[in-house]
Amino acid sequence: MATSLKLNIPTVAPRGSPAFAQALKACCAITAFQADQVQFCKSTDTAVSLEAPKEGVTIVDINAIVRYLARVGGAGFKAERAPDDAWIEWEELVLRPRISELSTVLDLAEQLLVKSGIVGTAAAVSPAQIILFSTLYDSTAGASPSILDKHPQLKTWFRKTLGSEWAIEGIQKAAAMTTVAPADNSSAKAVKGAAGTAPKVEKKPVVVGTVADRKLGDGIEMKVYKDGEKILPIPGQRNVLITSALPYVNNVPHLGNIIGSVLSADVYSRYCKARNYNCLYVCGTDEYGTATETKALEEKVTPRELCDKYNALHKAVYKWFNIGFDHFGRTTTAEQTEIAQDIFLKLHKNGYLSEDSITQLYCEQHDGFLADRYVEGTCPKCNYDDARGDQCDKCGTLLDPMELIKPRCKLDNATPVVRPTKHIYLELGKLQPQEEAWFNKSVVEGAWARNGKMITESWLKEGLQKRAITRDLSWGTPLPKEGFEDYQKKVLYVWFDACIGYVSITATYTPEWERWWKDPDNVRLYQFMGKDNVPFHSVIFPSSQLGTGDKWTMVHHISTTEYLQYEGGKFSKSRNVGVFGNNAEDTGVPADVWRFYLLASRPETGDTQFIWRDFIYKNNSELLARFGNFVNRLVKFAIAKYEGLVPDYTTAGNDPAFDSFKADINKLLKEYVEELEAVHIRTGTELLMQVAQRGNQFLQDNKLDNATFAAEPAKTAAVVGLGLNLIYLLSALSYPYMPATAESIARQLNAPLRNIPDTWELDLKVGHRIGAAEYLFSMIDMKKEGEWQQKYGGDKKVEEALKQEEKKKKADKKAKRKEAAKKGGDGGAAAAGPSNVVAN
């Protein structure tokens, strides 16, 4: 707009009063003409006035205000006029009524509306239309029989206009500025009173605050912690401690990383909080180890600089995905050193550590022993020629660097030699009886995920062997000095050290960390991870806890995932294949849509695929068509027909169809709670959509439309009242999966975030005033599929170079086999011999 405007609206303007009609005209005009720079100011008198200080304009006549807003509004004011003078006559009639009798005005207005061709057309809105609509809305809606019944053409126009965006939003703005939700059910009856009669209920100012500020009643709201308030276990309550696998700081997380740990844990954390359990969710970046050192070398920075960079990057990605950590820390802290060294010393004191001299690969070129990830080579199990010294990424086998065929130094590609060195070992074999007894109990009581159970059982069945827990690195948790002076050039192995990070990160959150980690009778620990991390959480870390002799809180439930693949292949940052954390935001698709799709595709029992076509379908056909439209349809209907008040749903509440509907919702709610309690996260998305679909079916069965509203007012009120209450339940059920969606619904209902109940109750009472309508989801054009496939399908030049490199490797292998064949059969066998020995 060209100038800043100030609009004064009366504070007290009951329905049917001249002041409310004036406020409604002004609010409809502001919306229709996109006069966004208008500042609302409540006044104590009954008149509406508008000021434009820069232009020196002050207007007190409401019709003149509407015409002025049309002139200066961003949308402009234009409409096709009829060829005769009917339009002008109509404008004059409505804007300067010479007749005081409403019925006479309506008679003339109907004739002129038809004559001017406005009825049945999509002509742009005019000041006259706004003024006439507002007068009709304030004078006739709720009257029985309606005065509009005598004017069919005008009634058709009015009903059509009632569904327009500017009318719906104008009604809501006027109601929020001038009226409030009544204190009791008498409001619903008052709203249905005779035309022009003010409801005989006390009005109080509307308070529209944050979601957390809104109140309904005891036992409904989800507990919200205040800023700075520490979450600590409370005796006698359900105390849940949640961790997700600590992401390495050497790369940007891709969608598979996100769904495999932090997002899955976030859903369960939000579910626990929505059940009002006492719940703490901690995570952070895993910053020590070879991976950090090697990445720092690649980027030519110090390990600390690298950690600072990627810690901030991970935080930004998770913040966009709305991951609700109670604390996100890091492992490079004094608390980590103190707690890890304490565990190490207690294991040593109790006889579970040993020293052994081993042969280890040594690089003569840079004069140093090589830790696992500084060694690359061919996997002895699957012959993948780019395996690491600790693990093969192709077959998933955990390796020792000495097992690799044709090992090479990652730093300079030199061939390492074997030299003796000393390391500290954790005697897992001695701890196996304790570990096995604990596992057999925990896996049943905690109902572990199937793959977590099977992976742990396979380790125990093979028999636990001692495992080195020190490495030759400079970047890591140092060993205690006293008694280990000969090991000051070594650090704790990252996979012994990393799980201790959960404890130390909690210690950076609160000095009372032991209340969480050393109270197994009062706290249950849930851990989320990809399947490749299972042994460290189910064998090595629990064994370390048991070996200290302390009374630790140990894992109650392990929730694991398989792999999420991208369009039939693997995610690859180097080849630009797949969607990584920062790419999701770049698409412009809201975080909640990403969250829902990933969770609905969660690879719980087998690998799943990220498919763009499926992603778009989930948004358009499920979230938008099934969930979003249900919410939007009901909220707008309530605003348009009931002034944003929850109608009286009690008069028709004994309908058997309604009882059946309530029973169906409670059955689905019970299943939802049971599945989430069992950490069956993907099933929860299916049940959420079933609840939304049952709501859609309820509206369809009861034919919620204008005709039913006019013919069966009591039934329609009951349908709307039950529907709004179901939307409130949906906000709670969607909160773990789509928190921004839940908060939007709460705003629209002018209600606080609610808990997830055991039984569905009607908590939005008759007369409760809801808020303004918001769109939850938007349509995604199917053309985006091809665009996104091309953008995230890989760098073609890099792909071609990799293919050529692969062809060269195969050609070299073939040439070597031919060369060996020339030397005779024995030569070929001799060449294969060492590989077989190493592999075994």
Automatic annotation (TrEMBL):
Basic residues bias: start-end ranges? 810-820
Q: What does the record give as the reaction this protein catalyses?
A: tRNA(Met) + L-methionine + ATP = L-methionyl-tRNA(Met) + AMP + diphosphate
Q: Outline the segment boundaries, as ranges, of region: Disordered.
A: 803-840
**Highest taxon, organism lineage:** Eukaryota
Q: Where in the cell is it found?
A: Cytoplasm
Domain called Methionyl/Leucyl tRNA synthetase: residue spans:
240-634
Which Enzyme Commission number(s) are on file for it? 6.1.1.10
Domain Methionyl-tRNA synthetase anticodon-binding, which positions? 659-796
Single biological process term from Gene Ontology: methionyl-tRNA aminoacylation
Annotated membrane-spanning segments are none
For this UniProt entry, the molecular function terms from Gene Ontology, in alphabetical order, are: ATP binding; methionine-tRNA ligase activity; sequence-specific mRNA binding
SUPFAM superfamilies documented for this protein: Anticodon-binding domain of a subclass of class I aminoacyl-tRNA synthetases (SSF47323), Methionyl-tRNA synthetase (MetRS), Zn-domain (SSF57770), Nucleotidylyl transferase (SSF52374)
Which cellular components does GO assign to this protein? aminoacyl-tRNA synthetase multienzyme complex; cytoplasmic stress granule; cytosol; methionyl glutamyl tRNA synthetase complex
Q: State the UniProt keywords alphabetically.
A: Aminoacyl-tRNA synthetase, ATP-binding, Cytoplasm, Ligase, Nucleotide-binding, Protein biosynthesis
Q: InterPro entries, per this entry?
A: aa-tRNA-synth_I_CS, Anticodon_Met, Met-tRNA_ligase_1, Met-tRNA_synth, Methionyl/Leucyl_tRNA_Synth, MetRS_core, MetRS_Zn, Rossmann-like_a/b/a_fold
Which protein family is named in the record? Answer: Belongs to the class-I aminoacyl-tRNA synthetase family.
What name is this protein filed under?
A: methionine--tRNA ligase
